[in-house]
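Agenda item 2: N~2~-sulfamoyl-L-arginine complex prediction
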Amino acid sequence: MVTPFDHYYRFAEISEFLKKLAAEHPKLMTLESAGKSTEGRDLWLVKISSTGFDGSKPKIWMDANMHAREWIASMSTLYAINEMLVNAEKYPEMYAADWMIMPMVNPDGYEQSHTQDRMWRITMTKNNQSECTGVDINRNFPFQWDTKTSTSDVPCTETYRGPRPESEPEVRAMTKLLRETKNIKLYLSIHAYGNSILYPFGFDLKTVHPNRANLINLGNRVAAAIKKKYPTCHYSVGNSAELYYPASGASDDFATGEAGIEYAYTLELSQTDRGSFRNGFDLDIAKAITVSKEIFEGFREFARWAGEKFH
Ligand code: 0X9
Ligand code: ZN
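Presented output:
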């Protein structure tokens, strides 16, 4: 690995990359394992803080690559981590917050998408009494689980919600942290694709979030900041059930509905109509860098907002 981000990293390279960054930036970054995946891979948790996580700053949570084939999600998250550490002095706004980042939530599925099936979405859990493998992590959260919208109780489908809420170790690692960590002010889940900033609730079309107006305002502010730097880059802001489809048991709804984080979004990166994308999941590496740079401007704006609002 000579030039960073000249290819999509396999899981082993991601681990190596994170360990190296933690060793090189011990004052700013710590690396922990938040648990193990079904197949025993570490679920990495990156913490970034200029004040040693002393509780004095608002916290921003990010997770990525819950869905295996969405490689741009972890790529752009690793890009942001790298940029924040290597060029820390360029981005003082980022250090108005403390960051908790899980850049690879579904390492088993991710490896499967590299070695067997590029379009693999779910985990690699062996399902009981079924020949099919895998659970959709973003239908397995214990909030409005299985309320029958874009979720399935059939193991052989891509949106299988699992046999029970939190059946997946990847989900348990996240819910534990989200429940026990104080002062998380913003939750961001990084997915692909569609160039959208989605706000909750997404489990049905009826339930209006009490913080809806503020969620829309902040989403618009972030989309505008990205456009200011990259005029051809347009992010749509909308309710996840309206703009996409209602889907229950998802992480964003859990983060705000149960863990009590007032601001929660799912960010859908990349789209099909820009340049040489083969499709919205399978971006050329050069395009992946472009998308990573664009969304980094969005992360900076989220951090500016947190710095203004919580100090
Ligand atoms: O369906 C999903 O899990 C997300 N889209 S994706 O294409 N990356 O699979 C959207 C989830 C939005 N959130 C809720 N509906 N709660
Ligand atoms: Zn996704």
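Discussion summary: The longest helix spans residues 285-309.
Owner for follow-up: CH.
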